[in-house]
Every structure is written in C-alpha cells, then in structure tokens.
Amino acid sequence: MKDFKKSWAEPYKMKMVELLKVTSRSQRLAQIKKAGYNTFLLPSDFVYIDLLTDSGTGSMSDRQWSAFMLGDEAYAGSKSFERMEASIKEHYGYKYVIPTHQGRGAENLLSQIMIKKGQLVPGNMYFTTTRLHQELAGGIFTDIIIDEAHDPLNEHPFKGNVDLGKVESIIKKHGAKKIAYISIATNVNMAGGQPISMQNLKQLRSLTQKHGIKIIHDMTRVAENAWFIKQREKGYANRSVEEIVKELCSYTDGATMSAKKDALVNIGGFMATNDYDVYEEARNLVVVYEGLHTYGGLAGRDMEAIAVGIKESLDDNHQKARIGQVEYLGNKMIAYGIPIVKPIGGHGIFVDAKAFLPHLSQDQFPAQALAAEFYIDSGVRTMERGVVSAGRKANGENYNPALELVRFTIPRRVYTQAHMDVVAESTAEVFKNRNKIKGLKMIYEPKYLRFFQARFEKIK
Questions:
Q1: Which of 33, 34, 75, 432 is catalytic?
Q2: Is 128 a catalytic residue?
Q3: Which domain holds residue 403?
Q4: Known catalytic residue: 94?
Q5: N or C: which end of the chain has fewer CB within 10 A?
Q6: 335 lies in some domain
Q7: pTM to 2 decimals?
C-alpha cells in the first residue's frame, strides 16, 4: 500500500455559523471603486472571505463565552481584572499589568514613559502603530532585523532574528544612553509572520544586560512564535508551547499586547512590565487615556474572555491547527506558482506584489492594486503591506520598503479548508491575468497611518 501523510483536523467543532453574502463581480467592482480601491473602506456586508486582519476577528470558544457571564463591571477593583492579571502573571511571568483597550493603547503608554526626545528605538522591523507611537514620543526607529528578512525568497527559519552586529554598531556609535530600549516583536508581522529564535533572543539579552538596555516585547503573536521554535529550534521539540512562551518572556523587561490576536478575543490588550517605576507611571497615565487601572477601557466580560483566551492560545493542538491552516493555504498558492514570502509564516500568507506585478513600479502602489484585484475576482478581502503602509519620512518622502506585499491574514478558528481552497484558486485566476492589472495613484492621504483611510484611483 502506498504511504500517505495523515490528514489533521481542527481541534474544535462548530456550534453556530454566520451566514455570508455571495456577490457578483459587477457588485464587487462597484464597491471597490466606491471605496477608493482601499479594502479597509469596503463594507463588510460585501465581503465573502475576510482576510483583512487576524486582529479581533477570531472566534471565541464556549468557555470564553461562558466567562462573559462572570464579568464584574465594577468601575473600580474589578474581580475580572484580577483574573486577567493572574492569567498574565502565570503564563507570561511579568510582574505588573496595566489593561488597555487594545495593543496601541499599550504602545502609547509605554512610548510616553520610556522614550525621551531624540532617543533611538532599535527594533526587528517596524510595525505601523508601534513606530508611530515611538515617533510621536520623539523616538527614532532603527531597523536591526537580519538582512534575510527583507528577501521574500530567503528561507531562513528565523527571519525575525536580530542582527547583533547592527545593535553593537548602534551602541558603539551613539552610546547606550541614546537608546530608549530594544523593541522586539515575536513572529514579526511586516516580515511575513516570521519568528525569532530563542538562541537569538538569549544572545540579545546578554548583550543588552552588559549595557543596561531594556528589551520591550511586542508579544501579540508570541504563542505562534513558540510553535515555530518547537518545530525548528534544537532542544525544544519536547517542550510545550506554554513552556516556550514563558521562557521567551523571561528574556524581556516588559511587553505590549494586543489580545485580539493570540489571546482570541475581539477587543482588549495590556501593557506589562517588571519595573515598578514604569508600572507606577503607567498606572497614572492609563487613567488619562484609557480608564481606571483596573479596567483600562475594557468591560469586565472582555477581561474574563482574555483570561481564558490566553490559556487556550498556549495549547499545542490549537497552534498546530492554527498554523497548519496557514501552511495549507501557502502550499496551495506555491503549487499554483504564486510568489509568496518564504518560509510560510504564522498568521497569514504574504504575496510578493513586486514579483506578481513586475510591470508596476513601487510608486504605482502594486500591492494596493493587487489587493483590489483579489477582491474583484472573488470577494476575498486582503490588505496591502508595502509602500502605503510604510508611510512617509519626516522630510515627506515615501518610505520604500524592500517588501511590497499583499497580506492574506487568517482569523483564528473561523474558516474551513474549503474557504482556503477558494482563496488559493482566486489568486491563481488573478495571476493568469496579471499583465492586465494597472497601477494606482493616491488621491487622498490622511495625516497618520494612511493605509487605513487613503483613497486611490486607477492610472489611465
């Protein structure tokens, strides 16, 4: 009998479904024009398969919905906060916790507290809201990710790694006091959902301790990063995701978290720290920007769901299925000849728009144009991660990142493999007609985070 690879199935079953609207091509064409060729401006009612983001779009479990009923909506001293705080301390190991309405609320607090005007903030590739908060606080982001991360075809297993030589050069040139902190993301979003290795983080921790520099952890997708360490890094195959996450966090001094990703909730986040002085300042500022330090802009029921979601996110079977679905879609695209970022990342597939549309220059926004075409073809909503997302420099010039990508982000516990088949087949159809795709020009640009609200029109 011929050998075969065993199939796997999701470690859950469905109790409720949401009915989707199936639209015609003419309807979709009208909607994308109305939205200024920006998929963020499409009404969700006209979206068939929504892969815009994995932020707050996952499905909560029956245990999370049950926890909703335990929500303590007291304005002060909420028991729900105590349960969320206990879960964070148990599973991540940080000493002090400040709740926020989502990750960018935590980024705002931390940036105001830890950055002095003119200080550098080295990080393993920028993220949009993170860099903006750093810049608004007077900081200057500096990229310290390994060069392999900027090459979509390079199959380095840990493209989220820090180039320690770049860090040492910055310290030598500017001095440790010029550095606010090192900003480290686990499973780097803009690189294609690429992980950092435990060894690399340990080495960075050793280097920063010599110079008295703190490491702040963007831990939005830390559990996904842990799964890749379990699969790829020597010595971790028999360790659980939960154990690996705890170790990852132990090499950092504080964290920001959007619980809308790994922790499987629709809203919520937190800032965590091991430094009491930072915690004390954050506890004061959170009252100004978010809410009291025992709710931080969240309802009690949301904090209850986070407490449960954190634990569920650390289950090995959950991560196997979650990342397995992403790999399934990525492998189907590869089989169709679609150029994607390799190796396949943790939270989505990133199509290389430069390779897909080589006839378009970067100033014609190829990733933005391609995301619109995917929607027109099948009603699948994706998003641009290229020159539009990168924004502008202080002098007004566009950042021109090496990676010009369309992100197919997979919500957790939402879609079936059949949905992934539809998505892959749509990319193949658009790929066949790629030479007909025209570029875009921007006709409206907001001041901040332009990718959310910018509008475009086709270049004639």
A1: 75
A2: yes
A3: 25-54+316-458
A4: no
A5: N
A6: yes
A7: 0.94
